[in-house]
Amino acid sequence: MLTAVATAPDLSFVASPAAEDPDHALARRACAGEVAAFEALYRRHAGRVHGTIARLLGGRSGQTEELAQDAFVRAWQALPRYRFESAFSTWLHRVAVNTALMALRAARARPREDEDEIAMERASIPDSAGHATALAMDLERAVATLPPRARAVLVLHDVEGWTHEDIAAELGMAVGSSKAQLHRARGLLRAKLGA
What we know:
This protein has helices spanning 22-31, 35-57, 61-78, 88-109, 115-122, 134-144, 148-159, 164-171, 175-192.
């Protein structure tokens, strides 16, 4: 006679609970004052923060580097207020975008820089992989020539994935204006890039 042996069911196919997001773990350690944890966050996100700011500024590389550093300083200072409700990268990039937008607002109040200097900076924009491919250069240059508000809406919507509602709130415009600026920016890009 066979006797049944009670065994635990095989649950190896069931996914274990997700481990804590590595960024959250680093952010918690950084909140506790661990500088090395914040340095790790910096290394993980510096490229995207720099790229986002560069696109919002239209390729002013000298100012981009300074503002990227400023964004990380602001993030370090604001880290105790991070509530861990969203991805750390989302929160950090919001800080970076706000830093760039504040610089754009301040720039509107100052006289324009030398056009030759701006053109030289725009000519040296690398793509996200660090390679200056012809297509990426053309696209980056075309984006850099867009009017500031249209460029900001395009970058925030198409690159960063923000909703028109978030863009409108951040830039102080109506949702319809955000949609119109995006349409305008895309049309200008098509014209500049030859459809």
